[in-house]
Amino acid sequence: MTGMFRIQLALLAAPMALALLTGDSFIHDSLTQVLLWGVLALAWNILGGYARQISVGHVAFFGIGAYTSTLLRIGFDISPWLGMIAGGLLAASAGVLLGLITFRLRGPFFTMATIAFAEVLRILAVNLRGLTKGSEGLTLDSTPNAAMFVFGSLRTYVFVAWVMMVGLFLLSWMLGRSKTGLRLLAFREDETAARSLGVNTYRLRLLAMGLSAFFTAIGGTFYAQFLLFIDPDSVFGVDISLQMALISVVGGIGSAIGPIIGTYLVVPFGQVLRAELGAQLAGLHLVVYGLGLIFVLWRMPDGVWPTVERLVAGFSRRGAGGAAKSGTAA
Amino acid sequence: MGLSPATVDLVLASLLLGGLYVTVSIGLSLVFGVMRVMNFAHGEFVMLAMYAVYWAYEAGGIDPYVAGLVIVPAVFLVCVTVLRPFVLWLVNSPPLVQVFATLGLSIALQNLALLLWAGNFRSIRTSYSNTLVDIAAMRVPLTRLVAFAVAFLLVIGLHLFMKHSFFGKAVRATAQNRRTARLMGINVERIYVLVFALGTSIAGLAGVLLMPIYSVHPGAGFQLALIAFVVVVLGGLGSLPGAVLGGLLIGLVEVCSGYFISPSMKQIVYFAVFIIVLVTRPAGLLGQRGAEEVGLK
Amino acid sequence: MSAQPLLRVEGLSAFYGDLQALYDVSLDVHRGEIVAIVGANAAGKSTLLRSLSGIVQWTGRLSFDGHDLQKLRPHEIVELGLIHVPEGRELFPFMTVEENLEVGAYSARARRRVVASKEKAFELLPRLRERRHQLASTMSGGEQQMCAIGRGLMACPEMLLLDEPSLGLAPVIIQTVYRKLVEINEAGTTILLVEQNLKAALRLAQRAYVIENGRIVLEGRSEDLRDDPRLTSAYLGR
Amino acid sequence: MTAFLSVENVTQRFGGLVALDRVSLSVEQHRIHGIIGPNGAGKTTLFNIIAGVFPPSDGRLALGGEDITRFSPEQRCAKGIARTFQVPRPFNGLTVLDNVAVGALAGSSNVAEARRRAAATIELLEMGEHAGNLASSLTIGLRKRLEVARALATRPRLLLLDEVMGGLHGGEIDRMITTVRRIAETGVTVVLIEHVMPAIMSLAEIVTVLDQGRVLATGTPGEITRDPAVIAAYLGDEVAA
Predict the structure, then answer these.
(1) Confidence bin at A67 (pLDDT 50/70/90)
(2) Labelling A33: which of A6, A243, B244, D227 has CA 20 to 30 A away?
(3) C27: domain CATH number?
């Protein structure tokens, strides 16, 4: 267990260490993106991994977060730090509402409903020009001001994103070890059996939905403050939902470290592919991406992390507790 | 009370659009009904067929409908050969894998189109692109009429095939009870591959019919898939008559909301319809309760 | 008894995932016989039939009519004329009675004779002719059982594997079903019958095997078993 | 004695099929009440209605005088009804300990406490050596015991056991009989649906026989095995072939 624990610590610390070691702004920019995807994948994982409700509409919450803090900043001069919380709460409410509407749907039907929900928000964002300026987008004041969530140094963005990711990792980890975590495990293994043992699976799904939406929206605010520009296609595009889910699935859903591993594998892979192939062959990197996803699902349907864990457990059979395989392990 | 010309116009436009949506959706419904797999890459096959028509026309000057005679069988062939292992793996995988594997295929195909034809909107102009036909005092574009007629024949043909052919009965039996179908001597794996190929070929046919009417871009498949999901859920999961009803209804909703509200909001309206149906009748208008378990009727 | 049994089962073990349901089961059925497999719930009776029709994993040796079943897939086993009528009828609920029968004749060996087979099935089970256009799921339990047996006959079976045809039926209906089974057997079809309804099964079958916890514990001619105290004690616990 | 669990005129229809026809039954507190009947008699349907898998088409259920007809499974669990599943449904990816801990969650303030209580329950079921193993690695006999342990961890007042002896070997059956008896001695009321007759005859104080969706007889095991109607229903009628 301690071996696995050390690996996880190293994985968490690595990006910040890298940011401190180098002053290269390209690396800082890439790291910020990686860490933001880590936050989003962890947030998605609370619903998709812990509660096994596969959403491909999470960009709805991302966009709610981005637009809420940005509109509050532009319209009322409210600090995005507060706007971030407001956006999170709004997204959580929207998530619970969506959950109430779709709780009867199973499998692909839930997935379809989430896609539709995100599309509705995208179309609204395009068409409610009075509020969002439509496709023209919204631009934020770029004067560095920490109180307004705008920093002069890229390294500060890396740090903020890192704190968010590590914080959400710890929260996921604690959630996994809590009573709620055990209930979620039972729910996703067998809902009928879980209910017979007194687990209120309906409430559990709504809770997961609310938490997941909240943290996704926080990622949305960070994105808006990092780029200082948002428009409907960039913060409500279905490809963001897809990537959040994809990262978690590749890394291994249902654990706290899985989405982070997935982030480290998928995001830099995408960045390199795009840099190498993007210029002359637009789209090729995403063809590789799609086929890569199918390959991972085919060879490692549980994702990379559980597969690695199994390998490690195979090397050091100790038979004690078996806690490493109980799924609560982070 | 006589019908005003505007009403007739709206109804006719709805029917024509609905017919197109039926063609786009019915293959998805068929595949889901039999295999219990929601193919998130269904729209991409429509989109690729549209590009194939475009390419044949631009490069070889081949008429779209003539090209269709090659494209549709080609899609079928690809499914029973290249995609065969994928289909068999898919049908035996857990739902999570099914969702993401078809999404992965969707991403790959969408960007394959981007790679081959870039991101611009492409359309073709044939000699009959602007031809109008008179029906009951209305003037209707020929291409839309062809699409509707083919959709009509397709639905009738598919219905007769499923109802009366030995193969069709075996397909329904497989959908309703997989294990017992095996006991009847049905090679269930073969049925899955053929049904997937049939459903996907119909998507290809939809692409052929759409291309003379609309323009195509790599993201078009996703937009069409969204419509197909709405149609399938609205009509009833895995129900072929349901897909027809759902397609026509969405055609009506889209035309009317475009006319009475605003064209930019038409998607909002049918997504609203989608959510309302999901909430009030999760099994769809013609679906049976628990149809998710029971399958194709 | 003739030298070569129609069905020979040797050292059969069967599994559901890691769970073993049958242990080293051996039995023979000869052409023209009715043989019963009896035993309590979950003893492994249905698993035996499922192994024969190739829908569960098994090890051992199974041969039917001289063919080794080891490498055959379910639809190939059907082509040999070994036909399984599953427990609980398992009709196709949204198809009519007639369609259910037609699907029963899907195999190549049976499809050629579908019209004649249907006529024969209707003759033997006239109730099905009356109900031919009705959805299978809307019929009573007894009628559904008739339909399931009729569907099995449509496959032109050399041998029928019947899994609890009396399940959930009233005694008078069971009697009717059993009379039909005798007629089917007299017309030349061998029958392997799995039953929980002990006395009925022993009346019908010439021989029987008693199965308990996945193992055969008793076998013999029906009239010998009928009064065997070991049998009643296994059932009633007294 | 008053009824602890009372089933009043419960009818269940599935489409045109009547699975249960005005079944009434009362279970007294601190008793082991057996329910038997041939396959297809309606035992599992009755069991599902008591456990709250679906509400009956008609009729009423009461526990300790309170109407629970429309309660969800989790509400019933909170009221003190626990059940096992005929085909065991363990949480395969969890250890035996965590499986049982899920049952113990409701009355515990944290997971550690739930695990402690679960460990005690596991000892009671004599499966301590398997506590750390994944549930998916258990044999059928141990899965049945896990079902009982998990249900017991919810601290039920009424324990519904659905064929917990089915598929067990002789020795396992004897152990299970001892276990059920021990559970009953702690004051838990037990309803036992069973096919293995020797087990039910030695355990149950009262037996209800179902046949064709109706109650055929109720009485002590001795009375039941001598009832000609029961013998006919159970062994099957003499059918003139």
Answers:
(1) very high
(2) A6
(3) 3.40.50.300
Q: In the block, which residue shows the tokens 């409410």?
A: A93
Domain A2-325 has CATH 1.10.3470: yes
3-state secondary structure of A261: helix
What range defines the domain where residue D167 resides? 3-235
Q: What CATH number corresponds to the domain at position D40?
A: 3.40.50.300
Q: Is residue C108 part of a domain?
A: no
**Which of residues 3 through 42 in chain D touch A, CB cutoff 8 A?**
none
The yes-or-no verdict on residue D239 having pLDDT over 50 is no
D 137-176 residues with CB < 8 A to A: 150-151, 153-154
User: In Å, how far is D66's CA from the nearest CA of chain A?
Assistant: 18
Q: Are A166 and A13 in contact (CB under 8 A)?
A: no
pLDDT tens-digit map of A130-156: 888 888 889 998 888 888 898 888 889
Count of structural domains within chain B:
1
Nearest CA in chain D to C142: D17
d(CA D14, CA D42): 12
For B173, which of C53, C95, C110 is closest by C-beta distance?
C95
Contact C41 D163 (CB under 8 A): yes
Work out the pLDDT band at B274, boundaries 50, 70, 90. confident
pLDDT of residue A329: 37
pLDDT reported for residue A279: 66
User: Could you give the C-alpha distances from C14 to B172, C29, C73, in angstroms and in order?
Assistant: 30, 19, 16
C9 falls within a domain: yes
CB-CB under 8 Å, A284 with B105: no
**D241 in a domain, yes or no?**
no
Instruction: Say what the pTM is.
Output: 0.88
What pLDDT, on the 0 to 100 scale, is given for residue D14? Answer: 77
B121-173 confidence digits (pLDDT tens) = 999 888 888 888 887 777 888 999 999 999 999 999 999 999 999 999 999 99
Which of A196, A264, C153, B290 is CA-nearest to residue D53? A196
- Per-domain boundaries in chain A: 2-325
**Domain count across chain D:** 1
Does C203 contact D200 at a Cβ distance shorter than 8 Å?
Answer: no
Contact criterion met (CB below 8 Å) for A143 and A239: no
**Residue of B35, B90, B107, B254 for testing the chain A interface, max A β-carbons within 10 Å:** B107
Q: C196 φ, ψ to 5°?
A: -105, -25
Containing domain of residue B61, as a range?
Answer: 5-294
Nearest-CA residue of chain C relative to D230?
A: C236
Q: Is residue D120 assigned to a domain? A: yes
Please tell me the number of Cα atoms within 13 Å of A47 on its side-chain side. 37
Quick check: B222 contacting A, CB < 8 Å?
yes
At A113 the pLDDT is 86
User: Nearest residue of B to residue C154 by CA position?
Assistant: B184
